[in-house]
Design the sequence.
């Protein structure tokens, strides 16, 4: 028997509800307060397949397609440098226990990132082929782009501007190393929980928000800025100081518990968070030097696809952006004014954990770039509203050109990462091939890799395989007894290791040659 469809509300009821919704949240009828009945409540309920409107489905599909177009070909990329250390650490066959695989740090004793290490452990089930690892990164980036879209819908309140913010975030040229580099997965996982926690808090789901915040902290230390971002969002939503303090207090308690956990599990729980450690003394000269270097780096990151190099150019661009934001805020409506303030404060708040670090690599600004995307999209919305109708088409063309230029610059950066992976694989293949006629050595000393640089910027460029050479060789040879050192740094190898062979990279022949030591 076919179920009867619910009755469609009459024109009179719709008209009355529209009048009520126009003039007041509650209307007094006699001595009784009657809650407003909205049009969405009067409309007939639809099935699960129709929960999203066509425009929302189109926006979500457009975002995912845009991510696939910009990062789909990264599935063909190879591993580089630090990737091999993650792969070796995730091999449960050689781990003492699951706890050791998830909690023992890979590099610094200040790292506590069990969820990221768990993702590599699960990926390691599929072997050491690079494609599944890159696929996870692309999927995570697509998820984050959707979360940015949802955040923009709530902050900006305009569908087209929210879509533009998500597209700008998804194709920002600085995203290359966070997405196309397997080791950049730390930023992707942390950002997913970070954004999801903020959205859950905005939706008045405190338990879910706290759980997601805890997962963000277990993904990367920089998630300590989340309570500040939540306080900013609550403040812009009109909540008073005591209300904000009461709502954000559980998150600060969570961070206190997190610091206690770090103190139990790692040695240096300050270093890597805000840089307050003996390695970074905050003298006046160091503070000035740190600020200059950070402004220089951030200027190049945030204003891409424009090429901004040097301290003074970066400082000038930031000053111009701040003045433009203030000028547009004066002519914007209340909702867009709050969106501009939220985006600017987001950038500041999410950069706080990196104030004391010596450098800010490109992948560190993955979360701060959410604020940059929101800021650009909101600026476009304000300008669109201020411009006369005859010039709005020109503004739309300019926005499309900016988005296309960002996508083009992103592909240039992606291609450099692709070539870095090919170079890494090529050098590793030649090194392993040079060891075919010799027994597996206990110590391999390698020289000549210094000139082979990877990275897209001077402060992130590293000699090829400087971080993961030993892990890469052990994985290729399937021999955990192999130790690798660079010439001149044999002291870093175990004292019991015996030098079995030496190899030097020859740039002319593009191969490794055996170094024969002659007695003096």
Sequence:
């Amino acid at each position: 028997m076919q179920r009867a469809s619910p009755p469609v509300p009459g024109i009179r009821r719709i008209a009355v509800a529209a009048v009520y919704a126009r003039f007041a949240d509650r209307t007094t009828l006699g001595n009784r307060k009657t809650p407003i009945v909205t049009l969405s409540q009067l409309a007939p309920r639809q099935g699960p397949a129709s929960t999203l409107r066509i425009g929302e489905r189109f926006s979500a599909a457009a975002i995912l397609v845009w991510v696939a177009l910009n990062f789909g070909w990264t599935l063909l990329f190879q591993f580089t440098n630090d990737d091999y250390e993650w792969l070796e650490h995730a091999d449960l066959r050689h781990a003492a226990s699951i706890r050791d695989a998830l909690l023992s740090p890979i590099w610094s004793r200040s790292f506590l990132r069990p969820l990221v290490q768990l993702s590599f452990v699960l990926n390691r089930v599929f072997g050491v082929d690079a494609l599944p690892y890159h696929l996870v990164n692309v999927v995570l980036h697509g998820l984050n782009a959707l979360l940015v879209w949802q955040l923009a819908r709530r902050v900006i309140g305009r569908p087209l501007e929210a879509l533009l913010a998500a597209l700008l975030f998804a194709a920002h040229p600085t995203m290359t190393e966070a997405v196309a580099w397997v080791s950049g997965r730390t930023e992707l996982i942390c950002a997913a929980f970070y954004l999801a926690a903020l959205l859950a808090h905005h939706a008045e789901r405190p338990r879910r928000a706290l759980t997601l915040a805890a997962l963000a902290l277990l993904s990367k230390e920089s998630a300590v800025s989340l309570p500040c971002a939540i306080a900013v969002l609550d403040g812009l939503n009109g909540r008073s100081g005591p209300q904000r303090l009461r709502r954000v207090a559980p998150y600060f308690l969570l961070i206190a518990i997190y610091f206690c956990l770090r103190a139990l599990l790692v040695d240096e729980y300050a270093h890597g968070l805000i840089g307050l450690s003996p390695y970074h003394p905050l003298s006046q000269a160091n503070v000035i030097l740190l600020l200059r270097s950070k402004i220089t780096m951030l200027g190049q990151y945030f204003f891409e696809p424009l090429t901004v190099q040097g301290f003074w150019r970066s400082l000038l661009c930031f000053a111009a952006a701040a003045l433009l934001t203030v000028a547009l805020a004066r002519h914007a409506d209340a909702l867009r004014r709050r969106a501009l303030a939220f985006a600017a404060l987001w950038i500041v708040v999410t950069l706080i954990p990196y104030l004391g670090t010596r450098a800010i690599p490109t992948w560190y600004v993955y979360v701060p770039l959410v604020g940059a995307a929101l800021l650009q999209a909101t600026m476009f919305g304000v300008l669109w509203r201020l411009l006369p109708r005859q010039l709005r088409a020109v503004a739309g063309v300019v926005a499309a050109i900016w988005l296309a230029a960002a996508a083009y610059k992103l592909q240039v950066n992606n291609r450099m990462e692709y070539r870095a992976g090919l170079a890494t694989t090529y050098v590793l293949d030649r090194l392993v091939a040079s060891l075919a006629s010799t027994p597996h050595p206990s110590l391999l000393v390698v020289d000549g890799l210094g000139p082979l640089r990877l990275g897209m910027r001077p402060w992130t460029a590293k000699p090829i395989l400087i971080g993961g050479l030993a892990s890469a060789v052990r994985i290729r040879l399937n021999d955990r007894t192999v130790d690798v050192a660079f010439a001149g740094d044999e002291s870093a190898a175990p004292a019991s290791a015996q030098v079995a062979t030496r190899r030097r990279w020859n740039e002319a022949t593009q191969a490794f040659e055996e170094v024969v030591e002659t007695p003096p």
Notes: The chain has 19 helices and eight strands.
